[in-house]
Specification:
- The chain has about 100 residues and is an alpha+beta fold.
- Strand 2 and strand 3 form a beta hairpin.
- The protein is globular and about 40 Å long.
Amino acid sequence: MVMQIRIYKIHAGRMDEWLAGWRRSIVPLRQKFGFEVVGAWVNRESNRFVWVLSLPASDDWDSRDEAYYASEERRALHSDPADCVADAETILAEPVARP
């Protein structure tokens, strides 16, 4: 299994707009392409939003991610929640077995 940690800086005053769009549009579409949303967290003081996506196999990540962004549904978002994101950092990671 591979996971991607996404850390977003949301434009000031737009966190609620981001969260609504993320819940309404991004999460269901990511799930349609086989991604699982493991969790999501907000730090309103710093306008940070952190979420973790996973896929069962790492060799599938790039192709599924490309298909997601190229999809008609993603391109058709009328008010793209990504417009609320000022900066983004993504990190691919694999789980470590517990001792």
